[in-house]
Amino acid sequence: MVPFRDTQGALVVGLVGGSHVVNHMYFMLLPPVTTALATDLDVGVAQIGLAVGLLGFVVTALQLPFGHLSDTKGRTPMLAISLGFGAVGAIMTATAESYATLLAAQVVLGVGVAGHHPAHYPLLSSATDPGTRGRAFSVHGFTGALGFAAPPAIVAAVVTLGGDWRTALGAIAAIGTVYAVVCVTTFRRYVDDEITAPSDTSRADEPWTVARVRELPGRATASLREMLSDSGIVLLTVLWLVTSMAAWGIKTQTLPLLTGVYSFEEATANVLVSAMFVVGAVLMFGGGWLTDRYSPAAVLVAGYLALVAVTGALASGMVPYVLAGGLVLVLAATIDYSRPARATLADQFSQSDNIGKNFGLVTIGISGGAAVAPPVLGYVSDTMGTASSFAAMAGLGLLSLAMTAVVLRAAGGGSVARPQPGDD
């Protein structure tokens, strides 16, 4: 059984997957060009890490507002905001002539990237069946991993052909701009309203009066209090934060580890990093199938145990050259493999009228990791060595295991510990 109940479902999963590729390409714009960008703008590597952190901060700050807009105004407008602002931010990044301009570009890019999860997950939930939703989320995760893998490969190809970092980022911006037009147009013309319509229409017909505007802070506070009273979704957000920190450590520190600790040539290291994301993307399908067939719990534990083992081994600095390359290939998979399980838990913890806000909340964990990990682990790498940053990631893996136990205990077992319907 495939994770699409009809042609509409297949179309939605495909379009959302393409959007995920584009948004993750935007998220991964700076790491592959860090050295060249720092040289051209006459700043340090740590300042580029700060720019990546600023992007993550903006994404984090906008999750709940965008989740609310997704639930109350519809999924297509949120998708348009995401892809539109993302394209503009990518163009600004490719043409940045100063560090201040680069920071401004990351703010605009952050607005775009912030909208994709509050739009994507509700669309997937509306277009798929519960018994195969883990596999639908694995398709989503697969395309996201491809998005992370694309920029290093594009940068390597452009540089090989004689181009520079601006040409490479400009190519990514052009791809995203074209896709934005195609994706939003297709949603408006061919996807049914029952999939894209707002799920919370409790006040849809009320006019925007002065009194209603004055009520907004109080309503926002009440909505936040209601979400925070759900211990399952709050703890899952913390779990996703810890996992995201490890994931962003992998994204930003693997290249320096390969070149600095294991003496790989930079071109070879970039190829390995791209291949690492592809392997993680492929193995994510296995994580989605196992999530549907068995339970999210088993998938999470297996993934985090592998994270601890692989990062710990690489942190030792004593792994043979060839084996180090092999371990790097499966490094991203230790986290990507369990992504469908985390998304399935968030879906199970949600009701139809708050799924956008709940996924916005857990995405705060994801983007929070993107805001914190690059500068913090970059500092650890600069002061204590890249191997120490990998030791820190092993510690994050252990913390993820502990948080998984806490999340499952808060859920009280229930559906998260059982095979999903449709897999008898």
Class, according to the CATH hierarchy?
Mainly Alpha
* String of helices and strands: HHHHHHHHHHHHHHHHHHH
Rg over CA atoms, rounded to whole Å, is: 21 Å
Beta strand count = 0
Biggest β-sheet description: none
Query: Runs with pLDDT <50, length 5+?
Result: 413-424
Strand content: under 5%
What does this protein look like?
The termini are close together. With 424 residues, this protein is mostly helical. Mean pLDDT is 84; it is low at 413-424. The chain contains 19 helices and no strands. 57% of the residues are buried.
Features:
mainly alpha; Growth Hormone, Chain: A; globular; disordered C terminus; 424 residues
Summarize this structure briefly.
81% of the residues lie in helices and 0% in strands. It is mostly helical and 424 residues long. The protein has a single domain (7-197, 224-417), classed as MFS general substrate transporter like domains (Growth Hormone, Chain: A, Up-down Bundle).
What's the helix and strand layout?
Blueprint: H1 7-27, H2 34-41, H3 45-61, H4 63-73, H5 75-94, H6 99-114, H7 116-127, H8 133-160, H9 165-190, H10 193-196, H11 210-228, H12 231-261, H13 266-293, H14 296-315, H15 321-331, H16 333-336, H17 339-348, H18 355-384, H19 386-411
